[in-house]
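Please review this one:
***
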Amino acid sequence: MAEPITVEDPGDPRLSDYTDLTDVALRRRREPAEGLFIAEGEKVIRRALAAGYEIRSMLLSPKWLDVMGDVVAELPAPVYAVTPRVAEQVTGYHVHRGALASMARRPEPEPGSLLAGARRVAVFEDLVDHANVGAAFRNAAALGVDAVLLTPRCADPLYRRAVKVSMGAVLQVPWTRFGSWPDGLDVLGEHGFLTAALCLADDSVGLDELAARRPERLALLFGTEGEGLTAGALARADVRVRIPMAAGVDSLNVAAASAVAFYATR
C-alpha cells in the first residue's frame, strides 16, 4: 500500500517527472528519452493501469486522495500529495483534474508483429498536432481499428495532450512506428494489406467504392495536416481514395476524415 507523502516544496526532486508540463518542446524530448509519459485525470490514469502500464509515481491534490483511494491502496509506487498551488508551480498550469501519474513507456514493437493478426489498420504520416493524434486514436478505438502505425516524424501519441484528447484510447489501441518511411509501407504489402491513401487526387475513387470491395486486409493512409500525404507515400499506395464533399468544401480535418473512413470500412 502506498502511503501518500506530503510535499510542500515545488523544487523537490521527487516531483521532477512533473516539471514544466507546458513546455512542449522540452517534454517532447525529455519524455521518450527518460521512458515516461504523463497520464492526466482519474479516467486516463485508471485506463493506463488497466492497460498494464507500470506507474512510476502519482501526484494528487487533497480532494483527489479519496477519489483515487482504491488505486492508491494498491500502488507500489510513491504517491505525492500537494496543494493546488504547489501542483501549479511544478507543472506550469492549474491542474484542473487534480490527478497526475507518471507512467513507464513500453518498447515499441516491430510493425510486423502488429500486422500479423490485424485486418484493418491506420497509418498516420507526419501528423504534428497532438490533439489530432489523440482524436484519431479515439476514433480508431471506437470504430474497431486493429492497430495504428506512425511515421518516424509523427507526433508522440503518449504526449499528455494526445493521451488526454484520446481519453486514454492511445493506451488501448496497439501502435508502433515505422523505422523508415515510405519504405516501411513494404511490410504492409508483405502481410497482404491493400493500402488505401486518403487524398484529393484526380484518379481517386470514392470511399463507398473502396468499402464495397470489402478487402480482406486494409490499411488506410492519412497525411499530415494541410499538405496531406507525401508523393512517396502516394506512389506506393495500391489505391487512392477520397471522401465526397459538398458545399465547396475540399477536405476534412485529418481526425474527422479518419472517423469517416473508419466507419465506412468497418
